[in-house]
Amino acid sequence: MITIGQQFPKFEKTAVVSLEKGKEFETISSDFLVNDDNVWTVMFWWPKDFTFVCPTEIAEFNKNYGEFRDRETRLIGASTDSEFVHAAWRTHHDDLRDLKFPMLADTSKSLAEELGILEPNEKIAYRATFIIDPTGIVRWVCVNDLSVGRNVKEVLRVLDGLQTDELCPCNWEKGQETLTV
């Protein structure tokens, strides 16, 4: 599995970005992750569309979209389902219609495989979350088993800590003192 300190892999994938006719899809590439504007990226993966735990996570990331934006961080959601399945799911699920971030389609499973997050039996992605800095380097990875949803507040807490570029003690939260040596 790709880990902290490594460059996020190169990719070019189709993503659902809207439900507006004719504007549903865009191509997103790894070039999108690297920038001079100090914009971070959180890419989170779920196993399958039209399931039970996955929409709770996606909806929670969406509810916290402003928190990520305030931290100059873009969100990208991803799974190994196709862009057409993503679009259908968004259309038919009340909590997913108004997503403010793209749903990346890794139908070839090549990116999930390169990341090392492909479950070996069903060949679906684990619930993996990557925080990627503006140079394209992975700074945090968290992977949950298929049956357990992640904690979006923890993703924000870790992002806050990484963005301080300082030493953050256990249970540190934004606004608290960091450690001095």
TrEMBL record:
Keywords: Antioxidant, Oxidoreductase, Peroxidase, Redox-active center
Enzyme Commission code: 1.11.1.26
A Pfam family the protein falls into: AhpC-TSA
Residue intervals of the Thioredoxin domain: 2-164
Reactions listed under catalytic activity: a hydroperoxide + NADH + H(+) = an alcohol + NAD(+) + H2O
Domain of life where this protein originates: Bacteria
GO terms of molecular function: peroxidase activity
Subunit structure of this chain's protein: Homodimer; disulfide-linked, upon oxidation. 5 homodimers assemble to form a ring-like decamer.
Protein name per the record: Alkyl hydroperoxide reductase C
Organism: Mucilaginibacter antarcticus
